[in-house]
From TrEMBL:
Highest rank taxon of the organism: Bacteria
GO molecular function: nucleotide binding; oxidoreductase activity
All copies of domain Gfo/Idh/MocA-like oxidoreductase N-terminal, residue ranges: 4-127
Keywords: Oxidoreductase
Name of the protein described by the UniProt record: Gfo/Idh/MocA family oxidoreductase
Keyword ATP-binding appears in the UniProt entry: no
From-to range in the entire protein, with total length: 66 to 411 of 416
Domain GFO/IDH/MocA-like oxidoreductase: 142-251
Keyword Secreted part of the UniProt annotation: no
Annotated organism of origin: Fibrisoma montanum
């Protein structure tokens, strides 16, 4: 049987990527929606053949507990809302996929993990690139030291974030009439650079240093940083030089190893990824990443296997974001001793 997924939050990512991907999945299907915008309901019902009884809003959300059509709740809300809705979904007895970044702080991540454990439900993070063949090749080449030891990684992800698209990304959102915390490039897109460096090296860094970019647009960046350069240092002396921004575009993951190099550019996109090594082009096809990601999670549930992108990995990355922020604020090297050592090995 195909497991039923309910998408929570019908914004850009649900509409443009997750909904369409759920037309291609084999182990799961779109069974329900949760939205606070009644105008969106008809279009989604028609497009995906969703019955009225599987349409919820944020007040009726918890009633999903009584709906056997829904096995997995997928949280696709602004980051500040991830923790509460993940916990409510677990309490309703559902498995959960929560979008990245897992939450605004590591304490919330831990609460989410605890709630899912207590409910006996699985929790995974929407890390689609762990199911994407170019990125899987970076993991293989790096972790198996195919070109020798990886000495330096360059991981940069930046995008020009417009002010009016999603105000919450610039720290200007509201929730129940009050300012909503969160946002900023490090949380939103820098997390891909953190991820890329770790899964290429196959290690969690031992320390980080960081520096905020100067703010050139004071109005746009009144609430969040404009960008950050950060370095992650690994135990063997190798480093990852990373960069993220909401004002400049970059999209690269590159590894320099003892006997060659390998890279993706673009590395973190939904489609059109391209890879090269010091021996020539990678000949790898682009696939529907989100369909693979959701099918893999459904398979973990159906066959009671652990997910390769668990809540603990989301917590690890939020702990690293906190360490990078501390390093940028203090101008010091920050140890990551406390960070969870969670790895997705090839
Ligand atoms: P979006 O702003 O387009 O959508 C957010 C949705 O949440 C909207 O449907 C909105 O109506 C709803 N919402 C409910 N309460 C809200 C409130 N108080 N303020 C604002 N919106 C509210 O954002 P998006 O781009 O779809 O991102 C949603 C989540 O998905 C984020 O966590 C983001 O990081 C993640 N995301 C992940 C990827 C990926 O590749 N994995 C890509 C894009 C977004």
């Amino acid at each position: 049987r195909k497991l039923g997924v309910a998408l929570v939050g019908l914004g850009k990512y649900s509409e443009g990527q997750l909904g369409p991907a759920l037309k291609e999945t084999k182990n799961c299907r779109l069974a329900g929606i949760v939205t606070g915008t009644p105008d969106k309901v008809d279009k989604w019902k028609r497009e995906y053949d969703i019955p009225d009884k599987n349409v919820y809003n944020y007040e009726t959300f918890d009633q999903m507990a009584d709906n056997p059509d829904i096995d997995i709740v997928y949280i696709v809300l602004p980051d500040a809302m991830h923790a509460d809705y993940t916990i409510r979904a677990a309490q309703a007895g559902k498995h959960v996929i929560c979008e990245k970044p897992m939450a605004l702080n590591s304490a919330d991540c831990q609460r989410m993990i605890d709630a899912c454990n207590k409910a006996g439900k699985k929790l995974s993070i929407g890390y689609r690139l762990h199911f994407e063949p170019h990125n899987l090749e970076m993991m293989r080449l790096g972790q198996r030291t195919v070109f020798g030891r990886v000495n330096q990684i360059i991981a940069e992800n930046g995008q020009d974030q417009s002010e009016n698209e999603s105000p919450w990304r610039l720290g200007k959102g509201t929730l129940n009439g009050k300012p909503m915390p969160g946002g900023g490039p490090l949380h939103d897109v820098g997390v891909y650079a953190i991820q890329g460096a770790i899964y290429t090296k196959g290690e969690v860094p031992v320390s980080v240093t960081a520096k905020y970019h100067p703010i050139t647009d004071k109005e746009k960046f009144s609430e969040v940083e404009q960008g950050v350069d950060f370095q992650m240092q690994f135990a063997d002396g190798s480093v990852a030089n990373c960069r993220t921004s909401f004002n400049e575009k970059y999209n690269i993951l590159r590894a320099e190893a003892a006997n060659g190099w390998f890279e993706l550019q673009p590395a973190y996109a939904y489609d059109g990824l391209k890879g090269k090594t010091s021996q020539g082009d990678m000949d790898i096809e682009n696939v529907n990443q989100q369909a693979r990601q959701m099918d893999a999670f459904a398979d973990c549930i159906l066959n009671n296997k652990p997910t390769s992108v668990p809540g603990e990995m989301g917590l690890r990355d939020v702990q690293l974001i906190e360490a990078i922020e501390r390093a940028a604020k203090t101008g010091t090297k920050v140890s990551t001793q406390e960070v969870r050592k969670v790895l997705d090995s090839t």
